[in-house]
């Protein structure tokens, strides 16, 4: 799914109005009905509803939702927030329609002391500002937001299109905004929803299709995408009935050190569970028994240094042709490991997966960047990202940096998070849609490294591998949390659920082809 900017959404609205064609007021009615339906599906008519409406089209949506809910038997109170003098045309039209209803209560609020009381258990509809927000909110609106956020007990804030105060494409990290429980947003995710700085403002985003014109949506060009199932199904490569283990490549996981052999075990196991034909683990001698006993299906190559790896650079001399290599989980930062990694990276000619301490080694010696093979995949978490690329003032700036580095280094960078951001060498960014907080646990990243290496090994191109790998990793985490709970699940449980995810993708990909 494409993620559009506020101005592209305005263009999409205008294109739809002109080419469907449909009057703007009817498009607003469609959007408002989609919201009202969602509310009616989730909350019974007995609950009081308070609608806070601004003076633009977001407010117009609020007024239309109020009318539809009133007609459906809800008790609705409407407060128009006078944040500007003149109302939009469609706001005025919807106000007229609302006032035509018998006993419809409409109050105009000019100051925070005029705000209506919010009863316990109320559904608060926040339709003050939407994608038209063009500056951080200040002045008395700040107090209005504060009043709404300090809502009465058991009430729920449902923001329409955007939590008021948030800008779709710019940081409003330090500006006031409504903190929604749910944000019902039209047609597509907004960039602001993808960023951790807005997590407690957006609440749960719900995307409601409103039938914006297909031609516009197909042709509009954007750098930002949300990786949903429709993208994933097109990436999946079914295995050929005539294949053998050689078809799916020999993968190598370079991982582990004394006390961190679990990282090697997790990455190796997830690599095997992601379809590699053969998997070798390259580990220090101290990890030999651990690895062989826990994963009999994997081969094991040992580094003579003992408790850490110091001869990674000699791997190429073994005469084995690896189809894909993943390096980093648990390797540590012993000076010999650092030196050995530095030599090894200069010898690589095909895309590799680089994670954890391998990233920290590169951060400590930025001249290594020139040796990272084109289209390699780097998987930093935010701290590793900062060590590699430096600090940024907000997360929009960080996205810009992420994209610029992926272009400059000609690589894929997967920045881990709730919606992991995957930057591609062409500058585009894909946000992964799966995963949950239960995955914020030791070893989860090692599992991802193994999955990515396994996918590369069996012939996925790096872009397909990183998009599919991130999705599968998150989806297996979701399945694990459904089974064990977010608290009790561990990284190994993610591996345990990879099978369910591959089965389900295989099934829907083959159904789509019928
Ligand atoms: N155009 C269309 O056809 C549709 C628009 N829709 C709704 O229209 C919304 C966009 O409407 P508008 O473009 O009228 O904009 P908004 O309703 O978001 O904002 C209204 C006005 O508030 C003012 N404003 C901006 N920032 C402010 C700030 N920080 N403090 C105080 N005032 C500020 C601006 O003058 C802005 O035009 C969408 O979010 C969506 O809810 C939907 O009804 C779907 C269809
Ligand atoms: K809003």
UniProtKB/TrEMBL annotation:
PROSITE patterns: YJEF_C_2, YJEF_C_3, YJEF_N. One of its GO terms (molecular function) is NAD(P)HX epimerase activity. Its EC number is 4.2.1.136, 5.1.99.6. Keywords: ATP-binding, Isomerase, Lyase, Metal-binding, Multifunctional enzyme, NAD, NADP, Nucleotide-binding, Potassium. Its cofactor is Mg(2+); K(+). It catalyses: (6R)-NADPHX = (6S)-NADPHX; (6S)-NADHX + ADP = AMP + phosphate + NADH + H(+); (6R)-NADHX = (6S)-NADHX; (6S)-NADPHX + ADP = AMP + phosphate + NADPH + H(+). Residues 9-218 form the YjeF N-terminal domain. It comes from the Bacteria. AMP binds at residues 416-420, 445. This is Bifunctional NAD(P)H-hydrate repair enzyme. The gene is nnrD.
């Amino acid at each position: 799914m494409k993620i559009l900017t506020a101005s592209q959404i305005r263009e999409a609205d205008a294109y739809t109005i002109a080419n469907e064609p449909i009057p703007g007021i009817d498009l607003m009615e469609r959007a408002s009905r989609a919201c009202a339906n969602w509310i009616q599906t989730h909350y019974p008519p007995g609950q009081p509803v308070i609608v806070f409406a601004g003076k633009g089209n977001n407010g117009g949506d609020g007024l239309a939702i109020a009318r539809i809910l009133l007609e459906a038997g809800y008790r609705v109170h409407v407060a128009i927030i006078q944040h500007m003098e003149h109302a939009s045309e469609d706001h005025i039209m919807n106000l007229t329609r609302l006032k035509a209803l018998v006993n419809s209560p409409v109050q105009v609020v000019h100051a925070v002391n005029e705000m209506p009381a919010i009863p316990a258990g109320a559904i608060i509809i926040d339709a003050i500002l939407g994608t038209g927000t063009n500056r951080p909110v200040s002045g008395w609106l700040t107090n209005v937001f504060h009043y709404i956020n300090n809502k009465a007990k058991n009430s729920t804030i449902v923001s329409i299109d955007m939590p008021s105060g948030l800008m779709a494409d710019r940081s409003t990290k330090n500006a006031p905004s409504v903190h929604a429980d749910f944000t019902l947003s039209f047609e597509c995710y907004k960039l602001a929803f993808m960023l951790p700085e807005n997590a407690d403002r957006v609440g749960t985003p719900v995307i409601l299709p409103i039938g914006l014109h297909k031609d516009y949506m197909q042709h509009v060009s954007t750098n930002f995408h949300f990786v949903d199932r429709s993208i994933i199904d097109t990436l999946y490569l079914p295995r050929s009935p005539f294949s053998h283990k050689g078809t799916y490549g020999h993968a190598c996981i370079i991982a582990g050190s004394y006390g961190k052999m679990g990282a090697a075990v997790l990455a190796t196991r997830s690599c095997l569970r992601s379809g590699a034909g053969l998997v070798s683990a390259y580990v220090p001698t101290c990890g030999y028994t651990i690895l062989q006993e826990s994963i009999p299906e994997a081969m094991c190559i040992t580094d003579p240094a003992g408790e850490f790896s110091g001869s990674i650079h000699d791997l190429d001399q073994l005469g084995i042709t690896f189809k894909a290599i993943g390096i980093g989980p648990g390797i540590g930062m012993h000076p010999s490991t650092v030196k050995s990694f530095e030599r090894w990276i200069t010898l690589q000619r095909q895309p590799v997966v680089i994670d954890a301490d391998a990233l920290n080694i590169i951060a400590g010696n930025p001249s290594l960047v020139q040796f990272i093979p084109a289209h390699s995949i780097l998987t930093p978490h935010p701290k590793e990202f900062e060590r590699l690329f430096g600090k940024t003032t907000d997360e929009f700036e960080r996205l810009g940096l992420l994209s610029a580095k992926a272009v400059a280094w000609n690589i894929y960078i997967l920045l881990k998070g709730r919606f992991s951001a995957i930057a591609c060498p062409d500058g585009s960014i894909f946000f992964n849609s799966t995963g949950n907080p239960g995955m914020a646990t030791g070893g989860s990243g090692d599992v991802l490294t193994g999955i990515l290496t396994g996918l590369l090994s069996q012939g996925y191109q790096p872009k397909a591998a990183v998009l599919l790998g991130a999705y599968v990793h998150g989806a297996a985490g979701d399945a694990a949390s459904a089974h064990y709970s977010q608290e009790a699940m561990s990284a190994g449980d993610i591996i345990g659920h990879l099978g369910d995810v591959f089965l389900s993708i295989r099934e829907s990909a083959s159904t789509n082809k019928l």
